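Task: encode each sequence below as structure tokens.

Item 1
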Amino acid sequence: MNRKIVNVFQKRDLLKKSITIYLTTILIFGVFSFIPSVNAEGIQLVDSDFNFSINSEDLINNSVGQDWYESRNDTPSLLTLDTSDVKGNTGKKAALNGFDIGTSAYLSQEFNVAQEKEFNVSIDIYIDKISDYNNYDRAGYIYIGDDSSGSNGPCSTSSERFVFLTFYDSTPGDSGDDIEIRARTSLSQSWSNTSNWTTVTTGLSYDSWYVIKLIVNVSKGGYDVYVNDILKGENISGYETYPSSSVTDISFSVGGTARGDFFVDNVFIPSQNRFFLDSTVNGDGSVNINPGESTYSNGTIVELEAVADMGWTFSHWSGDLSSGENPVNISINADKSIIANFNRSGYSLNINLNGKGSVVKNPDKQIYIQGEIVELTAIADTNFTFDVWSDDLSGNNNPINITMDDDKTVTANFDPDYLLIDSEFKNSLDSVNLRLNATSQDWYESRNNDTSVLTLDTTEIAGNTGKKAALKGFESPGYAYLSQEFATAQSDRFNLSFDVFIDRIEDYGDYDRAGYIYIGDDSQNYTSSDAGKGPCSTSRERFSLLTFFDNGGTGSNLQIMAREFRHDNPVTPQPWADTSTWTLISADLEYDTWHRIKLDLDINNGTYDVYVDDILEGNDINGFEDYSSSSVEHISFSAGGTGRGDMYIDNVFNPSSKGYRIESNSVGGGTVLINPGEARYKAGTLVEFNASANSGWSFDHWEGDLSGDTNPISISINEDLSITAVFITGNVIPTVQTDNVTDITNTSANLHGYLIDDGGENNSVWFEWDQESEIMECIGVIATGSVSKDGRSILHKNRHYKKDNQRPRFFQGINFSYFGVGNDNAPTMNRMGQNEKGLAIANADVSKSKFIDINNLIDNTTNYFSDRSSLEDNDKHHVLGNYDTVKDAALWIATHSAYHGNYWIISSEPGVGAIVCVDISGNSTITWINNSYAAIANVFYCNGGHDTDWGPNDVTAEIIMRDIVENSTSSDSDNLLNWQDISQRIAKNTRDKEDGNGTFYVKGYGGEISNGAARSAIVCVAGDPSFNSSIHMSWLAFGKTTQISIFLPLYAGNLSS
């Protein structure tokens, strides 16, 4: 008996047991509703969970009895029996892998009995990915039908498919939640365009298990689709060309036109009520689930084992399982979600090695408790030296301690023993010491021609403030060589690197060179004239011969050139005096920038490679053809003579050291100080960044590869960095928000606004009335109410107000200081002003208004002006510079003004009063109110006309002035211009600061301030810290206006609430 027949009998025997167990389950749990109208034959499929399939070959092959098998025989290898972990399912399952495959495979099984009436099937499905293939974009198919055509196996043609479903994604891939189930029900739905098929459901995700349940009724011609027990598609029509009255087979297909990967498990007829088991972890660890399945049948016992990661211990289960036992069993009778909770038990210390060496930990353990101190000792291998710690340690102390308060990773960096010493010139004390040839290995000046060309430089060169060698040969016929002998002669392959900064190159014949880089020896026997020239001093002593070249010394075309051949080489002559004939290594280098040059030299092969800023620019460059030695022993940098340029050299390392760059920038007024300042930094170098603000600025925060506002800040350098320091000025324009005007009447309105201030100063707020309507007959605005910022004077620190022709005015009088706003076109006429006593004057009609020369402070009878002049001090700031009462100011204006103009004089002092002052040459009149007393005289009309009779303007003036006085003496929150402390009123000279970029916030309809002809008016409002920013405004009944403004210059701070 062959193996396959034995398997058949085993499956039949197991099937009987399965039927018995299943019917017992029904009797126990009363699950009669799960199998509506199931045929008497009972279970229709075998091996529903693929546990009877031995391997992929067994799954593919068709046995002599009922069995899963690959029915299409196109590409059976697309079907495999999978036991990997697929989203928690570690059991056996069918994998159909058709991604980007043009051929197909079918996983099929024949029903135990043909189905004509209603039956149901449940399937676990997992979609892994879908290929973007024309308009198909399908993962695979689910077919239920028959094998009536007798070719290619069951469900192989449309006429053999009653249930015809696919998984579709219009934007295919392997992630997201846009998978749809689509059904093909008619010929009109194009086979090649899945978007035309019937949508069953949307919103399915990749990499998730779903339970698909189908209730199929062939006799009624349709089926219902459930996803995770939720009805998604009701009465979906069977495919219209299906002719049979029953179905006999189920197939899952992939490949061909359905190019995707998916998994199938737990295919049951009748359907089972399946449950999900979801596990998550809190802390570091994992959960082993046995058996691991996509879904579980009712009553399945599952073992859960919590496995803690290193440094963690299992604590307890939570969610749908409450227990501290581990492992633990759980019975699946519903969807379950369990959480394995882990607690921290200690910390791990991971040691990495860069280079050759080892690290000893004391104590040496896998896990360390909180706060435990571990000593680390770096031990270098032969020919290596410990350099520096990096990652969670920095510096080069050895041994060094580390405190375990978290998981730590430490890297010990080992460098090969160097051929060169003092690579960063730190051991050189000064220029004399740098030039001096010591008895031991060191840098020195070897040519002894013009040693002054070589100096030890500590100035700031593109951020490099450390020690570096400067070779300044610009316009110098004398030359110097900076040389050092290698620790051992090199005859094979080695490398070195250095940083170079080219400052300038002289236009000198056809040389046009900044200097030279030589690697060679000191082998030549000199004649008496050559004595003492030192290493690399002749062409025959130079294996590598490089220079920095700029043809014509343009300052814009910096190149690296190599001399490989003699001047008389028959193929490629390269004369010493014509650099343009040399071999081009790299072009378009930048002046005033540090470049890293790496040379990879193969002495035995006679060639070298040149890297510029880590990019290979010259490959297999020939050593100079006159060099005859089999090794090299020296390196020299030369400038002057024929290499007339200025350059700087730093970080000359062998073996080459990558080093990291730091780019620093600033936004605003300030700079970044870097300590130490280098062209490049070795890994693990601790660097301090200090943001230094200019006067009037302050450091705010870091951006780029630094964040936060810590200053100064130190970090370990393990990569290239770009950092930006952001500075802010104290003069920050605040954000102003205003609400709509409310409670509008003929005499008042409520205005509300908010000032959001981040530390700025000298800011103004305004309200505008933008409704065009006939409000009154003339013009004018007087505000009642108050606003404050920190209780400070509105005069304090007012500056940076200039727009168009308006600018601030300041005047220091005999008694007081004055601050106001004027017009450059008429410098003698200030539109508005105040002094620190709270006295304010505003022009209602400024045409031709003029005050006498302020030099006549005592004589009140002479020096009237008849026209406008350019004397900006000849204006009313004299009044506010010497008077502090409304009466005195009004009398002065009445007797010292020329022409005519309308003025309002008001005071912030409660009870002092206010006045409307109308003046005309030789005939000045005043309306003056003091406390509740009104002395009414003749008043001008708003257009400048003169009215000697008591008229409506006089009446209006009296009403408004009485209102002002009454409010000024009341105790409610509508006090007019009420300053708390006279000492806060400090005017500030702004004359030298008038060109700021702030907007001038006092707005007039015609662009000028308090211009009566333009129908706008201004009132200066002082502050009371006990009041908020809500202002109740009343205006004079003077006529039509399209704009009402309140000028509120405020000191920086927060609005009182």
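Item 2
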Amino acid sequence: MFKKIRKRDGRVVRFDSKKIADAIAKAGAATGEFDHKIARALTLKVLNLAQQAIPHRIPTVEGIQDVVEEVLLSSPYRKTAKAYIIYREQHAGIREITAKADVDMVDQYLDKLDWQVNENSNMTFSLQGLNNYISSEISKTYWLIKIYPPEVRQAHLNGDFHIHDLNILSVYCVGWDLFDLLVEGFRGAPGKVESEPAKHFRSALGQVVNFFYSLQGEAAGAQAFSNFDTLLSPFIRYDGLGYEEVKQALQEFVFNVNVPTRVGFQAPFTNITLDLTVPEYYANQSVVIGGVPQKETYADFKGEMELFNRALLEVMAEGDARGRVFTFPIPTYNITKDFDWANPNLDVLWQVTAKYGVPYFSNFINSDMNPEDARSMCCRLRIDNRELERRGGGLFGSSPLTGSIGVVTLNMPRLGYSSAMDEEAFISALERLMVLAKESLEIKRKVLENLMDKNLYPYTKYYLRGVKERFGEYWKNHFSTIGLVGMNEACLNMFGEPIASEKSRAFTSRVLDFMRDKLLEFQEETGNNYNLEATPAEGTSYRLAKKDKESNPKIVCANEEDWKRGAEPFYTNSTQLPVNYTEDIFEALDLQDTIQTKYTGGCLEEGNKVLTDKGLLKIEKVVKDFTALKPIKALSYNPEEGISEWDEITDAITVNLKRQNKIRVKGERGLDIVTSDWHPFFILEKVKSNPVCPVCGCGVKNIKSFATHLRWNPECRIKYHAMPKYQVVERRADELKEGDYILQNSCNLYPERGTKLNPDLMWLIGFFIGDGSMSEFVDNRGGNNLKKYRVRFSSEQQLALRKAARILNKYFGCKVKVIQNDKRSEPLREVTTSKKEVASFFFKLGFTSGKKVYNISIPKEVKDEISSDNVYSLLSGLGDSDGHIGRRDGDFEYSTVSSKLAEDILEICTRAGIMVSKGKKKARRKNEEDTFRLRISNRKKRYLPVVRVKEVSKDEVQDTQFYDLTTQKNHNYLAGKNTLIFVHNTVFHVFAGERVEDPMTVKTLVRRICELYHLPYFTFTPTFSVCPTHGYIVGEHYTCPECGAETEVYSRVVGYLRPVNQWNKGKREEFKLRKTFAVGTGTEAVPKLEEEGERKAGAGIAIAKPSRIKGKAKPKRKHAGKQLNLIDLGGAGG
């Protein structure tokens, strides 16, 4: 038996075999394979084997553990052996990093030996940077060794993909609700200072600063607020502030958020979105001051909003004391179709863009999104909130509280090299990496949810409590993000062609389509939201290229020729063009336009019908004949106004759902619809009164507490009783449940106008459709053999027949009365006329003579004459013929054997806002036809424009072709079969060589990009320098032209402005290669916009959009004027 053992630090201590037995017993207990008795037996085997292997020397801890591993592997306890091996590996990694942190890491940071010292250019070299560098390594090791399984760890360490933000145990980027902060004040962490809701402008800005700094400490990435100007502008009037006072307050705010007090000596990464004009969803909402709703609405503060934006932009344009740019907050401006390009108050926006390039522009002109659909999070990540709409719970489930759990970026060049022209192999390898990435993100989501429950993020937990109450998880609204880097180099390694070639662009589109489809599978599998993004590549583009070149120098990088001459390698961001590809800005735009819009709807099965201004059409017909049908509008629900309206259909597509679940939704009124599982529905949901009073914002614990509050606060009681008790929210098909109420149309959308068919004549038409007929006969009186037509109404309802006779006599000069003409039926009566004017009347309206029972319909000529006044008369005439009112419940029912007539009545009732359902009764005998029944309920609760869900189930329909429409404004449309319900349907950086002197040039460029391209998110960035003495200098100068002092050269690294000397080596190499693009004031023609037809005065920009040629752009053109660097043509990321 051994007496001594040598530990890992070299010390020799007493040998204790009990420690071996305990370790083996713990491993066996963990797997449940054996108990202490077997552990002792295995320990004896270990000691015997060790004695044989090490007979004459002192054993080491590692040597004994090797023997334990060997004994377990030779035993039948395989699970225990595997667990023991993993345990050893994890602890070895932890020991290694702990030892490394003691000495090596400090020297590596101080001597800048590790590239990660400059991985993030927002982090300054400093003592705090050193502390962050050391703690980050510990955190990375915890994630990789303790949390992630070996296959995920290896994929990251080997460079198959890059897991972002391993340096912190938290989420990536987070978007918050500024309205929440204004209602509740800043609070949430036990034992920390709390603030009441702000009552003054400076206080509100101060709370925003405190919020940003505190919440930044609980996340890795950006903190974002939307509607910044809308929600803060009312404070200006309430405080009675003038322009200079507002500007001073905003200057204090901007300086404060740029102070580097965050971990690592960073300023908080912050983003604010500016509306410029009050959005519809806030226009009629009461402003909140001091947490209390006021009498005015946000729409009343347009003047203060313009003042706010002008002051903020002037602060950003002036920079700091040395003319340095303010890096944060990153302001994002929404460019919508009604953007006021001629507004002189926005001149300073173009000035600050021309000087620094501070703003981001969100393009909603050539987009199917509205500003409320997207949340800009950081320098490149833009969240599409329509995924949250699809899941339900309003626009964001619980206010705009969304973001990204984490990001994994895939190494595309390595895939391209290893696949070698084999697209199938490429896709297969890509799928494997995506599955691993999904696994890592799902693990991270669970870990962070657990840490939230343990109060590791107290402020975040407080402000996300509403999401937790609704969905049972704090992070449910946050996306899991998978992205890619180096698609250009993937194409070079695979085909030897850049991404700009026709072959490579087609391949890239197929790859992105595959990735988007795969993410839909992940959403279906996990129930969590996934998005495909052109993710941050500030450090990733360098790290992965460096690792690939070290392991296989044959893999082509972005700067291959420079690398061969000793330069550091890098990969091109996401699916962007090489930074030195072209000098023609519009060629670059043309080549990237279709790709960038793929960075991150639901659909309906064949047979569903859509209510359009051209009638009730099958959705597959709209898709097939879309070009011929244009322009065409669908009936759509406007959630801001709470009304139905006609909305133009802008796109009609086919979707293949062979890999997605289909959901069948059944409900009252014959509702039976099959959709994709992510298809959204509008749900009518009762407004909850807790945790705050919806009138004054005062906290209430429960319904009883709220009732007491109303009792003692008469003003709240009066206002509450006048408030709507239900709200419209959105919910995915796979989240619908029995008892949900899906919204239908309740507005009469027929126009108020005079027509040639007054109510009497429209009633007559309805009655004719049901109980009328027209037959040809020969009048042989006098031997003339004249062909004539007889119009006959036959019915047992004598009151209805008398009304028909009265109308015929009044409007056509007939002299008819009700008679009995069929002796076989005692109650049957009829009214008959052969007067020419009557037959001519029905012919002109599209009716024909002969049998009509199986093919009767309401002709287009009649539909065109329907108004809000006569529609009820038409339905009344139909009801007086084949209609029936139940004696027991008073429900109205209409029966017909004509399927087309049933569709017509369904269309007309729905368009008139009448709640109707259509059912089908199968014929029992062979010689009978199926009967269609249309029913209008008389029950009071059925007056609500909703249909109750009775059953939701997965459906195994064989057809994989589903259909969807996009509408211009509201992104939903009225569709269904037997009853109709409402259903629903990346960053481009322009870098300038120097400041553009004429801001109007920049304005025109921004406008052209928005109106001619689909790129959703872009910036304009001039390169500039800052001298410590002379301040701001136009262009790239590493020494001051006046004094020769060393300067700071600024540009946008990935999405935010930082000095180039703080970038990592790979990004600095990229900066050297950037091409310039001409944007100037030369003599070339400005491109005309289709809707303008003429050049806008004062534009003064010499750019022209090239004609599109399929597969390629026109040859490069020469330009006069300033030079633009173009880089980072891509989606979102950071």
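Check on item 2: The first strand starts at residue 4 and ends at 6. Confidence is low (pLDDT under 50) at residues 108-127, 374-399, 940-944, 1075-1134.
End of task.
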